[in-house]
Write a structure and sequence with these properties.
single chain; 0% strand; elongated; mainly alpha
Length: 217
């Protein structure tokens, strides 16, 4: 029996090799179909995002090529489609000019990349700060840099800062407290062990008191 099995082995191996060779075109075709499906899906998502931007009055034909350049400058950390999708929220915040939107998205992407954060979250934070303190799109990179510096000086993360800055931005600008002082207070507070969410909530409460009678005094 052993001798018979040994004699049959080369034939079995040969049959297996022949089968594998025969299946190679099928495997290649399957891989090709999967790749093509992926490309079509990305293109559809890109077109849908561009169409959504047009509803906000954005010149998508001008913006999309700019976002391709931004993606290349970022080492393709975020691809063109991801940036185009994120551009909708940036445009919704009032930055409908193609050049302005590209600047805001680049700054937001840099912050997200540095802090391993979500692009949508950092983009929302940057536009919130720009609008609250009435800054322009050209200030976006500075805002993102200060965001990262606050994280470095304190004990928090980009996502935590970005998710909470909206709590204090509007009221802080209303009472004349500059962004630098807000960031400094958050850095000091979180460095002492206070959680970011608690620090921002406490600051909002304190700033709101300044808008009332006590603040007037």
């Amino acid at each position: 029996v052993g001798a018979g099995a040994k004699a049959a082995t080369p034939g079995i191996v040969g049959a297996g090799a022949a089968l594998a060779t025969a299946l190679l075109p099928v495997a290649a075709l399957t891989s090709g179909i999967a790749a093509l499906t992926g490309i079509i899906t990305i293109m559809a998502k890109q077109d849908a995002a561009a169409a959504s931007l047009r509803t906000l009055g954005v010149n998508a034909d001008e913006l999309v090529p700019k976002l391709k350049t931004v993606s290349e400058e970022l080492g393709h950390q975020f691809n063109q489609t991801e940036l185009t999708v994120a551009a909708y929220d940036v445009a919704s915040a009032g930055f409908t000019d193609a050049a302005d939107a590209a600047m805001v998205l680049k700054a937001s992407a840099l912050a997200a990349k540095a802090g391993m954060a979500d692009l949508a979250t950092t983009g929302d934070a940057v536009t919130t700060v720009l609008n609250a303190w009435k800054m322009s799109a050209s200030d976006a990179e500075m805002v993102a840099d200060k965001m990262q510096q606050t994280v470095a000086d304190g004990k928090t993360k980009i996502n935590e800062y970005a998710a909470n800055i909206g709590k204090v931005a509007t009221v802080a600008s209303l009472v004349g407290v500059p962004l630098e002082e807000v960031n400094a207070a958050i850095a000091l507070t979180t460095a002492s062990g206070v959680k970011a969410e608690v620090a921002f909530t406490g600051m909002k409460t304190a700033l709101l008191r300044l808008t009332g009678e006590a603040g007037g005094k």
